[in-house]
Amino acid sequence: MALRIGSRIGLRPEKREEYLALHREVWPEVLAKLTEVGIRNYTIFLQGDELFSYYEFVGDDHAAAQAALAADPRTQDWWRLTDPCQQRLPGTPEGAQWQELTEVFHLE
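-> structure tokens emitted (108 positions)
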């Protein structure tokens, strides 16, 4: 069974267009790396100034996959470029943006 991970992150309103442009520019290469380490169905929803992200991990070692992503120049560029456009949402503890989801409903 896949490990399901989700996040809810704020987007700085003044950086919205910059985020979208940067994301479009580097996303195809990043998606290739995500697929390589066992991440599937990576989806980002943007509503207002909130980003909702979801993915499924189908590999054997999530921590090793995360380490591989952190070491890859493609994903480093993605984070380096897009992270300054993001902000923690009020009430979200430091480091708690990403978490395992206990329930995910797929509507057919």
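The chain has a mean pLDDT of 86.
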